[in-house]
What we know:
Elements: E1 15-18, E2 20-26, E3 32-41, H1 44-50, E4 56-59, H2 66-69, E5 70-78, E6 82-87, E7 91-97, E8 112-118, E9 131-139, E10 149-154, H3 157-174, E11 182-192, E12 199-208
Parallel strand pairs: 1-10
Antiparallel strand pairs: 2-3, 4-11, 5-6, 5-9, 6-7, 7-8, 9-10, 11-12
Amino acid sequence: MSPIKGLSETRRLPRLGKIHLGVKALNEKGIEYPTAVDYFVCPPEVQQVFGPKPISLRILIPVEDEEKWASQYFRCYSRTRGLVCKGDGEKCIRLVDTKTGDLAWKSEATITAMKEMTCQGRECPDYKTKCKEIMNLQFLLPEVPGLGVWQIDTGSINSIRNINSGAELIKRLYGRIALIPLLLTLEPQEVRIPDTNKKKTVHVLNLLTKDTLA
């Protein structure tokens, strides 16, 4: 007898917790909003190893499959429904209101269905307002108690490019990336804001190795 098709062959990395790149602040009206910081916002067990405001984490990538440790898509989240659209720039899986065909963004849509559609990427009318590029970065912290991965979510284009570029270089040098001691850092980088063409310093992720080329 064979295992359950579509279930038994599925594997999921056990997640121990999340590390954040920002904190919640209050505006003048007392409404919470996220604001970026220049350090990793870590839970207590991670702070015990790396300190209260670390800018560098000693990590291991758990597997070779990039889809599992650095999943990156256009993603749209609703506060009431969670992930409602996920696309790659060509195709997407979208939760729609079956009556109107619109994105089931609010809970008023009582009858919904997941539908495969064309993904318009940055041309989508929901881009930036509801949808954006998001990488789910998952890694091991071998010095922190527990067997599983920690996750950082980033919507920074520069961070996504840096992680992808660093991973490609590491694979070329080592022939693999899984279970090699690496550094995940948060470093300042000067970027140009497209709307205003002004320069701004932001803090972005980098994936590095402590080894020398020799």
